[in-house]
TrEMBL record:
A single BP term in Gene Ontology: translation
Residues in Ribosomal protein L9 domain copies: 13-40
Its job: Binds to the 23S rRNA.
Protein name: Large ribosomal subunit protein bL9
Key words, A-Z: Ribonucleoprotein, Ribosomal protein, RNA-binding, rRNA-binding
Length: 147
């Protein structure tokens, strides 16, 4: 099945691309969620027209993401947790905890954009990536301290 993507999908393609997917994936996931449209003649002509609009929209989103990255890059988060022996945390610090701490400082972010290879389980300073756009990544400094 050939479809035209309406938004970026990891591992598949970028917005506005013509891709071939399996019938079930297109019919059951992409089309009902309006992440793609069928690649018929009319939609392909419309895609050519909308490519300039998509390019302008992506440039605007990237500019906004870069501006947000500058603001967030200067923010340092302090999270206090209970610790046991050898400065190991009871539990861990997750992306949700970091997103809530950012919200408390007035920076609203989507927790799904926070990239933690694994939850933070030790006391100390850590650096966490926040993906605001596919080309823009901000680094957040997280300081985990014992209570």
């Amino acid at each position: 099945m050939k479809v035209i993507l309406r938004e970026d999908i990891d591992g598949l393609g970028k917005s506005g691309e013509l891709v071939t997917v399996k019938d079930g994936f297109g019919r059951n996931f992409l089309l009902p969620r309006k992440k793609a449209v069928l690649a018929n003649e009319q939609n392909i002509r419309q895609l050519e027209h909308e490519k300039s609009v998509i390019t302008a929209r992506n440039a605007k989103l990237k500019g906004a993401a870069e501006e947000t990255a500058k603001k967030i890059g200067s923010v340092q988060i302090v999270i206090k947790r209970k610790v046991g022996e050898q400065d190991k945390l009871f539990g861990s610090v997750t992306a949700l905890d970091i997103a809530e701490a950012l919200a408390a400082q007035g920076q609203q972010v989507d927790r799904r954009g926070l990239h933690l290879p694994e939850p933070i389980k030790t006391v100390g300073k850590h650096e966490v990536e926040l993906r605001l756009h596919r080309d823009v990544v901000a680094k957040i400094k997280v300081d985990v301290q014992p209570e």
